[in-house]
Amino acid sequence: MLRKYKDTYPKVAKSVYVDESAVLVGDIEIEEESSIWPLVAARGDVNYIRIGKRSNVQDGSVLHLSRPSKQHPDGFPLIIGDDVTVGHKVMLHGCTLGNRILVGMGAIVMDGVIVEDDVIIGAGSLVPPNKRLVSGYLYVGSPAKQARPLTEDERAFLSISAQNYVELKNDYL
């Protein structure tokens, strides 16, 4: 499940759960208390992937990035902050997610997207390249549009969701 690309292996903190059916390749770093669930594919080959603390990537999700180019000299790495819940079958490609974010099932988030802290992306949404999702809102649709401010209960749920997955991964470990 942890494979090298050239001379680089994924680096995973001891408290991280990685399901045996997941595949993580190359320049990937995952911080404490996070979890990678069944059939996740993450390729840190042409750039890098960083996943923060207490974040979870659920079943069947794909994590990838974009190589440096003339138009984008640094390319687009994939960066996931702390307390992020990535739902089932999500595609994250060369984007940056802040902290306390929920990405709904089947969503697609493209190159150059920046998602600020405290955001919910609705299931099935498509976030097109280079879009910025500002803090404190629900985004839905294809292309994703700002729907409304998050309620206080929804904001609180973002950390609760992440903590629920910390507890679940502890059961698996």
UniProtKB/TrEMBL annotation:
<protein>
    <submittedName>
        <fullName>Gamma carbonic anhydrase family protein</fullName>
    </submittedName>
</protein>
<dbReference type="Pfam" id="PF14602">
    <property type="entry name" value="Hexapep_2"/>
</dbReference>
<dbReference type="InterPro" id="IPR047324">
    <property type="entry name" value="LbH_gamma_CA-like"/>
</dbReference>
<dbReference type="InterPro" id="IPR011004">
    <property type="entry name" value="Trimer_LpxA-like_sf"/>
</dbReference>
<dbReference type="InterPro" id="IPR050484">
    <property type="entry name" value="Transf_Hexapept/Carb_Anhydrase"/>
</dbReference>
<dbReference type="InterPro" id="IPR001451">
    <property type="entry name" value="Hexapep"/>
</dbReference>
